[in-house]
Amino acid sequence: MAKSKTAFVCQNCGSTYPKWTGRCDNCGEWNTLVEQAPAASGNSAVARSSGKALKVQAIGDITSDSKTSRLGTGIEDLDLVLGGGILPGGVVLLAGQPGMGKSTLLLQVTAHIATSVPVLYVSGEESASQVKLRAERLGADGSEKLSFAASTSADDIAASIRSGKFKLVIVDSIQTLTLGELTSAPGTVSQITNSSNVIIQAAKASGAAVVLVGHVTKEGSIAGPKVLEHLVDVVLQFEGDRYGGFKVVRAIKNRYGSTSEAAIFEMDDRGLSVVENPSAALLAERQNADGSVVLATLEGTRPLLVEIQALVNPTSFGYPKRTASGFDLNRLNLLIAVLERRTKLNLSDKDIYINVVGGLRLADPAADLAVCMAIASAAAGRRLDDGVVVFGEVGLGGEVRSANSPDRRIAEAKKLGFTKAIAPQTSKKNSFVSGVKDLRAALIDYLQK
């Protein structure tokens, strides 16, 4: 008999190799090749290519399901991120670091939805007694329409979805599922891809909404093949500090709504709750010292005031250290170079540390000016006046560029009692806004002793 050959499949991109190598030549990742037995092959694809012509119709004759009522989660901010709620027949992927609160949030959501429609919660990681303990803590154990099952079989879960008994199915998590036809281990590329396809086809056929929980890698990306994110309709990312601080849910893909919204939560003994006024909470313990600057930023379309802290110390080694928490390190190095070149600050022998208070991660370009002013403030031992907020993008020439939605940022600052905003000159001129043309002018005019 001919010896059955095994293949080595990259768990990051799905590329197949006849023998093991340390590095995948396709995606460049190390130690991602796993040995798998090939699937049973039937006839060749050419021999089986016996299709028939598709039935087509005019695009104008297609009936639209835009009026289909969505399933409200009971959390207004989360509904906004989803584009109005969970759409029947839609598939949502929720991913995040372990311990962020994914299972907690989904149990809260299912408890609310189960008051009106039948819901199935499937767990491949926890037993029924473990989920029961969490449900009792969250007060989600009183609904008769909320059902639970512990299973890792994608075939059984798909059959339950096709039965039409449930309007919403939660699968926690996709990395634990297996198909009977495949011999590879759970979490491999083939298992994740095929299990997802089976569940998604069942959801589209039955009209039931499905929420898949996804794991993440050490780098923070969603574990498994990239095709998983392409298959689903909505991808939600759970970010923040799992040991405290705020947690942010934002959509990085949404076929039914915007990807610019974000929901901000905090964890307590009753589960996750929406932070009604995150700006006030973030600034509650602030002390106006050198190196402290208040940034007017945006999380989605929501204005938010965040404290940026900087610490500048003489370096003890030949190579200065730059560290950033909540801010892109490459962007920080660029801004330090702009400061040295355009303002004549000498930072080449200084260790620089940047911290965004509250565990938030900033991706707003308008944070540049606040970070630069915090570094200059800490380096010179000077501080900004009380009641001042800062926003604006900094270019390589030291110019301060415009930021999007300045009116929302200014309105949020006024609501919390701030009296002045240091902003780009392109912003509307009034008594509240002090426009600056470049970084050098901002530091000379507004850093006080």
Q: Any guess at the CATH architecture of the largest domain?
A: 3-Layer(aba) Sandwich
How many domains in all? 3
Radius of gyration over alpha carbons? 26 Å
What structural class results from the helix and strand content? alpha/beta
**CATH homologous superfamily assignment of the largest domain:** P-loop containing nucleotide triphosphate hydrolases
Distance between the termini: 86 Å
- What is CATH's topology name of the largest domain? Rossmann fold
Beta-strand residue fraction? 15-25%
CATH top level class name of the largest domain: Alpha Beta
- Return the average pLDDT rounded to an integer: 88
Helix content: 25-40%
Shape: globular
Strand count, sense and barrel status of the largest sheet are: 9 strands, mixed
**Poorly predicted residue ranges:** 43-47
Strand order of the largest sheet: 6-5-7-8-4-9-10-11-12
Number of DSSP strand runs: 21
Count of helical stretches: 11
Provide keyphrases for this structure.
Ribosomal Protein S5, domain 2, nine-stranded mixed β-sheet, seven-stranded mixed β-sheet, 11 helices, 21 strands, 449 residues, globular, Rossmann fold, 25% helix, alpha/beta, single chain
Description:
The protein is α/β, with parallel strands linked by helices and 449 residues long. The protein has 3 domains: 1-38; 70-276, 3-Layer(aba) Sandwich (Rossmann fold), CATH 3.40.50; 280-446, Ribosomal Protein S5, domain 2 (2-Layer Sandwich). Helix content is 25%, strand content 25%. The strands form 4 sheets. Strands 6-5-7-8-4-9-10-11-12 form a 9-stranded mixed beta sheet. A 7-stranded mixed beta sheet has the order 15-16-14-13-17-20-21. The longest helix has 18 residues, at 189-206. The model is unreliable at 43-47 (pLDDT under 50).
